[in-house]
């Protein structure tokens, strides 16, 4: 931090003031010491002292306040795409960010989205500010999609739903609420988890600690470790759970395991905090993928759920999602909603309208909704096919006895390959396969045509690099 | 309830941590003073109701307006582009065009790549990103905010945990600028302080410094080494000419200040709900601009990852096409002119009614808002008796005034102020 007074150069000639102008301004009688000091004014690293015998004069120079600002590290996930774009190699493969691609490796705009947008264009709706909590029609359908229309929590109006800026924004709203109303409470996050979770809680000043999740030996779930760590946490902690299709591992608890997780959370009086970014994308079924959330809601537990429509409706850049907080009463839900609004107002005032309208139109119209379900199954189906092909290619290549079946057991867009950083670097440097350093690959960016090539790359990196 | 059966034995006397609710200590939040007005307005069944609360432009029929240039842009982009994540800093094209508006079409500063700029969630998001950036990189600094200002400014810097100070701005007696008070505060602030300035069409007062006054302010800022942060939410809306409305910023740039700017397309392009704007910070050189931009992105990532695309596409489509841009400039002028016309009408109506008060300020003030000088009690009467909705600081959104309601409005104002 540039808090020491340095001799700062005047960088722009238009900034220098003539002696005449200086004489019009302030003249400080100060020390005759010609070394830099700013009298009592420690707030101005931008002034340069000119000494003239016993009179020092302060001159404003054209130096930036932000002199000490260093280059931020590239984002570990979004930075990958940027590096991929810069690569000119013909075999390059982007398995970095979790954005769905067709078999031709093209981005995919869902047909239902195009239809919804055309409807919106025809209707010519206005672009007025949404209320702080977002589009009412959207809030209604998003909660129903998550909990089921007939769910008592909805019927009894016990859910505070606020439209948020996709998953990230919704998580951030909740984090700010936790910081404000549960000072000192910790959030338990899985080890590993989506890279941005930590940033969100850090910037919201909410302390966090990790619970065991991924077992590198089995490339599966360390269930005992997970339960033990949740049990060991101070009572009343928030437990961040991935509703389905865990990111980055692709490893989800079984229904039986979910029940046990719910048991221990209830026992310890913890608050479950679900991140649901892939509803529909995991199994292909919207309802099935919401099972974990619904299980907890059915127990009468108060809980938080962040939703995102980036992947399942392909609305990545529209930034559309929601924060849902299930409370024990309609009154509590109303109060909580009002406080979420108070957090949103100084962040962005009110959320963007376009994505909300698309979702409201798709989910709210029975015809479009059915079509969406079909497209959802198609997308999830493509990923399952690609998993199968990758597994087959690796098994054919690798006669060492290494078990690659985790590729089939994992679910959703991502696969945790088990490759370490050096091996992941090899994937990029030698094979031009872009992935995140934690060994995560996005199968949504893989085509059947490239499975062989990827298998070669993984085989090489796993066996020849340590 | 199943809840009680399983837990009642185990949780006696746990107070706030009982399973009945975690949220017992959560009070209902106060209504937002501005957006709460519209909520109340919508709930009012009276056929005479008038909404002059929130600053959202209305046509002479009191209807929201979607600009023609915007409709055309939407036609062009519908179904054509995919919805992939924008880069964290937002749409490059949109930012390019936006910087030209603020810094000048042929600005050397843009050519020299000295401006760190990111797409933001309209003006609010730009201010908030800057406040967070200020907190992170100048943690000892505070922000000087004019009195009065848009109420959300206080929320923004408070939630960013940057301490606030105020400086004199509005002169209630003259309903104009307290220039002497403002200059005193600028002089007395510790050197190198951060100041929030409204580039044009001050919200809520509509009172702007003159060009001469801006020059003096700029000079004093130089002497004190203050950091000027401009909130420019109404470029084009003040005079009808975006170039003219950017004059304050250009004066500071000529004087060599390294400034920050929050820009918004909510009003001047009618893109309110799209949340599209831009935060820019002028740096010493390209290298520093790259570093600052990377840090701004770093702040945005845990807030919303990357900004929404739709509004940005509309902006870049319009500003990137000479014909659409021309159409936009025309439409902005129409909006600004209508408001100027309504100012005249309201003032004339009040004077015709024989109001004992002076209403010159209605036409002297500029932009969307008129600071009427009415008290909160008078405003309450306007709402309760006449179903006229405005913020309690007496701010009238002139954008909500029409030829159809200006007479009714003038009458009501006269009624509640005539015995003042």
How large is the radius of gyration of chain B? 23 Å
Count of discrete alpha- or pi-helical segments spanning 4 or more residues of chain A: 17
Tally of structural domains of chain A: 3
Helix amount of chain B: 40-55%
Q: Tally of extended strands of chain B?
A: 13
Oligomer: heterodimer
Level-1 CATH class name of the largest domain in chain B: Alpha Beta
Strand content of chain A: 5-15%
Distance between the termini of chain A: 38 Å
Organism (chain A): Cephalotus follicularis
Function (chain A): Important for the metabolism of amino acids and Krebs-cycle related organic acids. In plants, it is involved in nitrogen metabolism and in aspects of carbon and energy metabolism.
Protein name (chain A): aspartate transaminase
Family (chain A): Belongs to the class-I pyridoxal-phosphate-dependent aminotransferase family.
Question: Can you characterise this structure?
Answer:
- The complex is a heterodimer of chains A (466) and B (420).
- Chain A is α/β, with parallel strands linked by helices and 466 residues long.
- Chain A folds into three domains: 2-61, no CATH class; 78-108 and 378-464, Aspartate Aminotransferase, domain 1, CATH 3.90.1150.10; 129-364, 3-Layer(aba) Sandwich (Aspartate Aminotransferase, domain 2).
- Chain A has 17 helices and 16 strands.
- Chain A has helices spanning 19-24, 78-86, 111-123, 136-147, 152-155, 166-181, 195-203, 223-232, 255-267, 286-289, 291-298, 330-348, 354-364, 366-397, 406-409, 421-429, 451-464, and strands at 28-29, 47-52, 55-60, 93-94, 159-164, 187-191, 208-212, 214-215, 220-221, 238-242, 271-276, 303-308, 321-326, 414-416, 433-434, 440-442.
- In chain A, helix 6 runs parallel beside helix 7 (195-203), helix 8 (223-232) packs parallel to helix 9 (255-267) and helix 9 runs parallel beside helix 11.
- Chain A is globular.
- The two termini of chain A are 38 Å apart.
- Chain B is 45% helix and 12% strand.
- In chain B, helix 3 packs antiparallel against helix 14 and helix 13 packs across helix 14 (322-352).
- Chain B starts with a helix and ends with a helix.
- Chain B has a seven-stranded mixed β-sheet with strand order 2-10-9-8-7-3-4.
- At the A-B interface, helix 2, helix 3, helix 6, helix 7 and helix 12 of A face helix 1, helix 3, helix 6, helix 7 and helix 9 of B.
């Amino acid at each position: 931090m540039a808090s020491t007074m340095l001799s700062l150069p005047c960088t722009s000639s238009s900034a220098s003031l003539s002696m005449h102008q200086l004489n019009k301004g302030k003249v400080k009688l100060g020390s005759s010491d010609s070394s830099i000091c700013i009298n009592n004014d420690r707030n101005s690293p931008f002034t340069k002292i000119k000494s003239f015998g016993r009179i020092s004069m302060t001159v404003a120079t054209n130096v930036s306040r932000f002199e000490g600002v260093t280059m931020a590290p590239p984002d570990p996930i979004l930075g990958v795409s940027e590096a991929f774009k810069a690569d000119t190699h013909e075999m390059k493969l982007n398995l970095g960010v979790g954005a769905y691609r067709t078999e031709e490796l093209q981005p995919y705009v869902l047909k239902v989205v195009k239809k919804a947008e055309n409807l919106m264009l025809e209707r010519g709706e206005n672009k007025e500010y949404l209320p702080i909590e977002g589009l009412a029609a959207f809030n209604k359908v998003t909660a129903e999609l998550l909990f089921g229309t007939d769910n008592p929590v909805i019927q009894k109006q016990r859910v505070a739903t606020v439209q948020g800026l996709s998953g990230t924004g919704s998580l951030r709203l909740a984090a700010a609420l936790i910081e404000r109303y549960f000072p000192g409470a910790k959030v338990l996050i899985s080890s590993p988890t989506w890279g941005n979770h930590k940033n969100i809680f850090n910037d919201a000043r909410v302390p966090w600690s990790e619970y065991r999740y991924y077992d590198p030996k089995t490339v599966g779930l360390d269930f005992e470790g997970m339960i033990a760590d949740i049990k060991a946490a101070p009572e009343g902690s928030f437990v961040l759970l991935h509703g389905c299709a865990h990111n980055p591992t692709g490893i989800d608890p079984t229904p039986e395991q979910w029940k046990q997780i719910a048991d221990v959370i209830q026992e310890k009086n913890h608050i479950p905090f679900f991140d649901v970014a892939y509803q529909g994308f995991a199994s292909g079924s919207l309802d099935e993928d919401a099972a974990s959330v619904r299980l907890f809601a059915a127990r009468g537990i108060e809980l938080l759920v962040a939703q995102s429509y980036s992947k399942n409706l392909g609305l990545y850049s529209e930034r559309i999602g929601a924060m849902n907080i299930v409370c024990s009463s309609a009154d509590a839900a109303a109060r909580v909603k009002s406080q979420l609004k108070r957090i949103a107002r100084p962040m962005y005032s009110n959320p963007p309208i376009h994505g909300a309208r698309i979702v409201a139109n798709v989910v709210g119209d029975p015809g479009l909704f059915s079509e969406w379900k079909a497209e959802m199954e198609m997308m999830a189906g493509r990923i399952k096919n690609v998993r199968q092909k990758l597994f087959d290619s690796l098994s054919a290549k690798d006669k060492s006895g290494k078990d690659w079946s985790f590729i089939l057991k994992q679910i959703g867009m991502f696969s945790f390959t088990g490759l370490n950083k050096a091996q992941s670097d090899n994937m990029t440097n030698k094979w031009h396969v872009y992935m995140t350093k934690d060994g995560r690959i996005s199968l949504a960016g893989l085509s059947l045509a490239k499975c062989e090539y990827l298998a070669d790359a993984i085989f090489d990196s796993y066996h020849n690099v340590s | 309830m199943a809840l009680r059966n399983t837990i009642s034995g185990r949780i006696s006397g746990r107070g706030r941590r009982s399973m009945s609710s975690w949220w017992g200590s959560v009070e209902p939040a106060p209504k937002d003073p501005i957006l709460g007005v519209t909520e109340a307005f919508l709930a009012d069944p009276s056929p005479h109701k008038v909404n002059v609360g929130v600053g959202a432009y209305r046509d002479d029929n009191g209807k929201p307006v979607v600009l023609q240039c915007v409709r055309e842009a939407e036609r062009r982009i519908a179904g054509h582009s995919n919805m992939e994540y924008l880069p964290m800093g937002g749409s490059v094209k949109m930012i390019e065009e936006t910087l030209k508006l603020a810094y000048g079409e042929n600005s050397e500063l843009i050519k020299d790549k000295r401006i760190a700029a990111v797409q933001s969630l309209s003006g609010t998001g730009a201010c908030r990103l800057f406040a967070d950036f200020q907190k992170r990189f100048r943690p000892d600094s505070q922000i000087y905010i004019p009195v009065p200002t848009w109420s959300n400014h206080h929320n923004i810097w408070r939630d960013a945990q940057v301490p606030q100070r105020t400086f004199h701005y509005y002169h209630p007696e003259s309903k104009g600028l307290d220039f002497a008070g403002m200059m005193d505060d600028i002089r007395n602030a510790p050197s190198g302080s951060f100041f929030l300035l409204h580039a044009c069409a001050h919200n809520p007062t509509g009172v702007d410094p003159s060009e001469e006054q801006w020059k003096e302010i700029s000079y004093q800022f130089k002497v004190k080494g203050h950091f000027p942060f401009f909130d420019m939410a109404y470029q084009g809306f003040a005079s009808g000419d975006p170039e003219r409305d950017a004059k304050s910023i250009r004066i500071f740039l000529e004087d060599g200040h390294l400034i920050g700017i929050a820009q918004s397309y909510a009003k001047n392009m009618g893109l309110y709900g799209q949340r599209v704007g831009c935060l820019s910070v002028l740096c010493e050189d390209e290298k520093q601009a790259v570093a600052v931009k990377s840090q701004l992105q770093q702040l945005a990532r845990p807030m919303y990852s990357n900004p929404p695309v739709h509004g940005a596409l509309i902006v870049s489509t319009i500003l990137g096409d000479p014909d659409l841009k021309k159409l936009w400039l025309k439409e902005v002028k129409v909006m600004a002119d209508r408001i100027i016309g309504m100012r005249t009408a309201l003032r004339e109506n009040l004077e015709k009614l024989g109001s004992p008060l002076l209403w010159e300020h209605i036409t002297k003030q500029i932009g969307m808002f008129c600071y009427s000088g009415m008290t909160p009690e008078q405003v309450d009467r306007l709402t309760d008796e006449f179903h006229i909705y405005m913020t309690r600081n007496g701010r009238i959104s002139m954008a909500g005034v029409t030829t159809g309601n200006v007479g009714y409005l003038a009458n009501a104002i006269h009624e509640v102020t005539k015995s003042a």
